[in-house]
Specification:
The protein is an all-alpha fold and 299 residues long. It contains 18 helices and no strands. The protein is flat, with a radius of gyration of 20 Å.
């Protein structure tokens, strides 16, 4: 039982759950009405396996710095609950299963894009960018932003501008999400020698970067409405969520206490889940009750 819990922790279940959720919404938005169950379920299974594989490889590559950080000192490799060979075998097994499920049960495009995302996160970001530049989370964020695209291609077998728009939203969400955590854990990152932005450029600079990306994110969340992808119900929800995120980002410039950064981090998780929930509700659960903005522009 102890080993199974350790293996489960390798998959970072909470993080992976959010990624798979965005992939689910991407798939549901790709088709009208109820989607075909087979590519949806197999697609989600393959995406989950790949994300879990990337998470396990992240544990393997980061085992040295994990031992030095209070946030990660409990991880299986850091505590000795698992050996590196066990983690590598587990990660490779999950990765191979992911490619088999997606390649044989879904379509080749989704399999290749998922493989590229896995390599992008586990190798390009974790093994290189994380230790090379304070802009690591910005450059490497494209890998974590891919799941909505993967969900979309799993159902349609093709890329679409709307899928890329979902990817853009998650991409712009990633820096303020992680920088709020990095501000709170900056001493951990400094001790481990990881050049996160608060460590290399200071907290004040990071807070301004966080605000700038939150503004860009808020603008990007208007695009589903402006392009006709979603209607007024989504727009109303997005505006409320954006107002909340902007409040946190502005308040971060002069926070009431040190823990406010973690409150911002926690809100960012609720924000992304709720935003994608509004997208689905607008697309599937509720009828359109007003024409999208582009219809007026076209007149």
């Amino acid at each position: 039982m102890r080993h199974w819990r350790a293996y489960l922790e390798l998959t970072k279940p909470r993080v992976v759950a959010l990624l798979v959720f965005t992939a689910l919404i991407g798939g549901l938005l790709a088709v009208p009405g109820v989607p075909p169950w087979r590519p949806l379920l197999l697609g989600l299974a393959g995406i989950w396996l790949a994300a879990a594989s990337a998470a396990a490889l992240n544990h393997l590559v980061d085992q040295r710095i994990d031992r030095l950080m209070a946030r990660t000192a409990h991880r299986p490799l850091a505590t000795g609950a698992l050996r590196p060979t066990q983690v590598l075998t587990f990660a490779l097994l999950l990765g191979v299963l992911s490619m088999l499920v997606l390649g044989l049960g879904v379509n080749a495009l989704t399999a290749w894009l998922t493989f590229a995302s896995l390599i992008g996160y586990a190798v390009v970001y974790t093994a290189f960018l994380k230790r090379a530049t304070p802009q690591n989370i910005v450059i490497g964020g494209i890998a974590g932003a891919a799941p909505p695209v993967l969900g979309w291609t799993a159902l349609t077998g093709a890329l679409h501008a709307y899928a890329l728009l979902l990817c853009l939203i998650v991409f712009l969400w990633t820096p303020p999400h992680f920088w709020s955590l990095a501000i709170f854990r900056r001493n951990d990152y400094a001790r481990a020698g990881v050049p996160m932005l608060p460590v290399t450029h200071g907290v004040t600079v990071t807070r301004w970067h966080l605000l700038a990306y939150t503004v860009l994110l808020s603008l990007a969340t208007l695009l589903p409405y402006l392009t006709g992808m979603s209607g007024l119900f989504y727009l109303g929800g997005a505006l409320v969520l954006d107002a909340g995120f902007l409040y946190y980002a502005v308040r971060m410039l002069r926070p009431p206490d040190e823990y406010f950064a973690m409150r911002t981090f926690n809100y960012s998780i609720i924000y992304l889940a709720a935003l994608f929930g509004f997208l689905l509700a607008d697309h599937w659960l509720l009828p359109r009750f007003a024409a999208p903005a582009y219809a007026f522009i076209a007149r």
